[in-house]
Specification:
- The structure is a single chain.
- The chain is 31% helix and 41% strand.
- It is built from four helices and seven strands; from the N terminus they run βααββαββββα.
């Protein structure tokens, strides 16, 4: 089984270059983690646009997640997002939870639509845990979707378009 996530995030009145520069700025990634009330975070960014890579780790407390999941992950849950930008408008993405079974992968695609940049995110979540895997997939998919929307909110402020 697996769970698909599909999100469209819009940055009005911006260019792809502006959005790429934002994603390549460690201060932006830190601001996103702060907005999400992360326990701690780190960002390793190399370049802007085509050929660039990013590794972002955000560690969350687990007070807000259901008890069945807390038993599996403990007091904290680290989410590591690795991006490989194959062009200025496309990134292959892999998301892992270190030490836990499961895999999340997909793509980020940017498009200039009139005066706006639209980011299309497509991710597949797969958790290999007998009996509760589906519940964990739903939980992780929800957390990732919430994190993407938080990143968009922070991005709108960052770009001065909110």
């Amino acid at each position: 089984m697996s769970k698909n996530i599909s999100e469209k995030l819009t940055y009005p009145g911006t260019t792809i270059e502006q959005v790429l520069a934002m994603y390549a700025d460690p201060a932006f990634r830190e601001e996103v983690a702060t907005y999400q009330r992360a326990v701690r975070s780190s960002a390793e960014l190399d370049g802007v646009g085509a050929g660039s890579t990013a590794r972002v780790e955000i560690v969350h407390g687990t007070e807000q997640i259901p008890s069945f999941a807390r038993k599996l992950v403990g007091d904290e849950i680290a989410i590591v997002q690795e991006e490989t930008w194959t062009s200025d408008t496309h990134a292959d993405v892999r998301v892992t939870i270190p030490g836990k079974p499961g895999d999340m992968s997909g793509t980020f695609d940017l498009a200039q639509v009139g005066d706006d940049v639209v980011e299309t995110v497509a991710l597949t979540v797969k958790v290999n845990i007998p009996f509760v895997g589906g519940k964990v997939e739903d939980l992780i998919a929800g957390l990732l979707a919430k994190a993407l929307r938080a990143e968009n909110k922070v991005g709108l402020r960052w770009l001065g378009v909110s």
